[in-house]
Amino acid sequence: MKIVVIGGTGLIGSKLVEKLRDAGHEPLAASPDTGVNTISGEGLAEALAGAEVVVDVSNAPVMDDAAVLDFFQTSTRNIVAAESGAGDKHHIVLSVVGADRLPESGYLRAKVAQEEAVKASGIPYTIVRAAQFFEFIGRIADSSSTGEVIHLAPVLVQPQSADDVAATLCDVAVDEPANGIIELGGPEQFRLDELARRVLSASNDERLVEADMHARYFGAELHRHSLTPGRNARIAPTRFEDWLSRSAAARITPARS
After folding, report:
1. Scanning 101, 136, 158, 214, which has the fewest C-beta atoms within 10 Å of its C-beta?
2. Where are the extended beta strands (E) located within the chain?
3. How many CB atoms lie within 10 A of CB 248?
């Protein structure tokens, strides 16, 4: 089965392409790096020709509120138009747990707009809302940094590894469309500030992480469960310490010639 992965050269996309190929499918990594531009439309119709499934894991290149909204709306509009012409049977989009609870965040408003465009397209769809990735905790800390101090709200998160997110998307891609939302979280909950301390410590980053209930998360003020999935969420298998150990081992293992 031909499956087009929009954003297929990024962190999640590259892992998903590999898993789909290992499962015997024909994944196509579609991104500007491979000649497919969902904003201009360049190469999009050609990429989608003959595809049965499209998985959109792309992300905006800039984080300005207006630019992010424009990216997701324009990109999704162009993708679904090309899909309608190609007769695709299933559109999957990767979104974020809590996106609809945090309208103060321009980024999350844009993700909700992306979801709504997919729902309105008439194409069978599945929206996978994932909790934070272990790999992105450092970026979250950086976004909340003022000099050597990082302010993060002491709210709960239920993160998982990027590899587990890709595995779930692989399963969803070969399943029937849910025409609804699937939530995905990890097997453990942590306080966001405590998790950031552990990630930074493992990287020998000595910046101070301070708990601040009024600290903004990509523009939004958080409540205790703003970022946690609901009771019916799918639970990814990888525990934080196992991921951390593997990440540390990968950093110190010399490359083979």
Report:
1. 214
2. 2-6, 26-30, 53-56, 90-96, 125-130, 145-146, 149-152, 156-157, 181-185, 190-191, 208-211, 216-217, 220-221, 234-235
3. 12
Instruction: Give the pair of three-digit tokens for residue 234.
Output: 């799918």
Q: Model's pTM, two decimal places?
A: 0.93
The label of the residue with tokens 């190609």 reads 86
DSSP states of 157-206: E--B-HHHHHHHHHHHHTSPP-SSEEEEE-S--EEHHHHHHHHHHHTT--
Closest CA to 217 of 209, 207, 227: 227
d(CA 192, CA 33): 34
Identity of residue 85: G
Question: How far apart, in whole angstroms, are the C-alpha atoms of residue 5 and residue 11?
Answer: 12
Strands 216-217 and 220-221 come out as antiparallel
d(CA 30, CA 83): 14
Q: How far is CA 147 from CA 63, 139, 154, 200, in A?
A: 20, 15, 20, 15
Helix (H, G, I), strand (E, B) or coil at 71: helix
d(CA 181, CA 209): 33
Per-residue pLDDT tens over the stretch 6-49: 999 999 999 999 999 999 999 999 999 999 999 999 999 999 99
Q: Say which residue the tokens 């196992």 belong to.
A: 242
